[in-house]
Amino acid sequence: MARVRLFSAGEPARLAGLASLTAPDPSERVSALVDVAVVGARSDGKTQFILHAIRTLGADAPDDLSEPERNATLDIMQVVLAAARPRPDANNPDAGVPHYVFRLQPRKLLEEMGLLAQLVLLARSSRLARALAVVLVAAAAGVLGASLGGAIDGVVGLGLLWLCATAAGLAFLAARRRFVGRGPIEVVFWDVAGENLYGSRQKSAEYWSLLRHLVRRRVADARPERRYGFAPVLICNPLGLGIDDKQSPFGRLRPLLPIFAGLGGFEPEALVVINRWEAVRGLCPEGADRDELVAIAAEAMSGANAPALVAVAPTEPMPVVRRGTIRTCCVDAEEAREEGVHTTVLRYDAGLCELVSAPWQPFSELDARLRAFWAPPAVEPHQILHYRFAEGPRAFAGDARRVFLRWLGRLAFRSGAAAPAPVALPARAEQPDASAVATSEPAAAQTLPMFAADEKAGGFHTGGT
Fold it and tell me: pTM above 0.85?
């Protein structure tokens, strides 16, 4: 069955970049649709996070995507499957907002959850709460009837307890079977350049408006058997936090998280992703002075599977971070509800790494190879951390895998209404620009060209994502 386009040629011109976005046919068995907006500054690792997520989902994509979506899927899969060069190139913030469509099978979601998490998910999605309520009412009625008849004793109590446990177990198995049979969860990852959000208020508002139209249209098509969820993901690259986190890209984007999460409506969700976790552990040893400054010399490991270190700008100062900033943003961050948004924290490593700490020495005495990539640091650090890494598109493992899949399941099957009631799109007095609106198959790019970044690309000389 063919997929349907979410936006047509009659939409306002500013939505023309979404003309290639498709959704499953209404008759297809898909249990939920989820839009995940992955936000991060250039070189912070947002595309690398998407690669890990795709691997975790199983890299299953619909067969009948539109041509631009299919091309984007093949492009990202070339990186996922590339053993010789598994690190993606950074996206150009001027190129728009790429989106990638993949699917997660419900069985895999349940396999990664403990019993309590499964109960919560099934209660929200497969009428388990209603079945358990019936069991409790029946048990209460049985106890009341036995007590009124004077027949309540230990044997009767044990019998009632056994019957209730059996009924609850059968209800759980039935709900699990219904959940697995509902069909896959379709997840759309939006690769968002953070420069387009904190560059100016006008640009942030434009992007907010774009996502708002996207969510409203999705909500209009949602129904009980096909839920919808939207949430932002904010990437925290510890090596880019600097001395004062509020001046870092992460610090600028963090206050925007509740605003964009609120577009999801009922029970807004957000995810903060801390990559390069081993680097955090190396920067925050037990008992270290929080005010100490540490210079970071990051480079790719040599070998066939990791490209050589590439300098973004030879005159850029060697990055320096404050231990207390890293501890506040990365170590002390916890799952919490802030400003009405339930925020989950995921920690993982983008790849293998080696860490070596050493006392700081004058910059002129550092290895000539390091001095070729960086100018002297802007402030005098106390230590230097040599961080060598080899990135690869692995799947999330351990706690990171469980956190990601549980968060995704909660996002897809939140209780109650998935989002606010749809509101009609605002009318425009002028006619849409015909050249900007797709009339048949969209042109080359499947994304909306947004606006030029007005700040220099950041990062830490990885040339990464």
Answer: no
